[in-house]
């Protein structure tokens, strides 16, 4: 009994000393802003820098990561909860040396964890977090009651907008809602489909000023992506644009964004807290 307790203590200490993956939720206030395309290509850009990346498609019923890479995952999260598969088993190798978990309607199980399901998810996800540098969650457009709880668990948020006024307003509304419940989540901004550098800079600055003025929230502008015809061509070919044409302006801009993020070269002062993803899940999903 004493030996078992000692072994358990050593395992817990080893896990606590392991470097755990950062969990990042990519979201937008509305659909159609290129959020999933950003998540996929951002993941690949990080992978090209030698980072270990897992991309989790969290868009219930509307997930399109498979479509963007022209593949089909044999398993999804429902196989974990209902068919006895491990998380390792449902991971698919994706383009650009990233790993992918697809969600689909099985995500409803993730949003309704009881203690038994949480214990199993906690144990297996802890192992995953030790195997990756970043775990990205490509969230569905907008915010539901269930997805809101999940957003409160992650370490960081990346909010995608475009220069369109409706997109800016929806991005602000989404962050206002999140901020009203939890104020300390680091937030990064990316502007997609800009026609000029000035338009991209102005859009991000406008959002940052609004967050600061009305919410007293400091946000970090990661950068902007041009409205490049290569993107639609790559989508038609079901290939990530960063692999379809690495020399395209949009691909170079994505590499710049990923480099800024990975190197923490934000310009702004930002303290990234230690990851407490699983502890947060226990708090927000089990109320403990």
Automatic annotation (TrEMBL):
Pfam hit, one: CbiA
Gene Ontology cellular component terms for the protein in this record: cytoplasmic side of plasma membrane; cytosol
The keyword 4Fe-4S appears for this protein: no
Signal peptide range in chain numbering: none
Top-level taxon of the source organism: Bacteria
Keywords for the protein's UniProt record, in alphabetical order: ATP-binding, Nucleotide-binding
GO molecular function: ATP binding; ATP hydrolysis activity
Organism, as annotated: Peribacillus muralis
Record-linked InterPro entries: CobQ/CobB/MinD/ParA_Nub-bd_dom, FlhG, MinD_FleN, P-loop_NTPase, ParA/MinD_ATPase
Classification via PANTHER family: CELLULOSE BIOSYNTHESIS PROTEIN BCSQ-RELATED (PTHR43384:SF4), SEPTUM SITE-DETERMINING PROTEIN MIND HOMOLOG, CHLOROPLASTIC-RELATED (PTHR43384)
Domain (CobQ/CobB/MinD/ParA nucleotide binding) ranges: 24-241
An example Gene Ontology biological process: negative regulation of cell division
Stated name of the protein: Cobyrinic acid a,c-diamide synthase
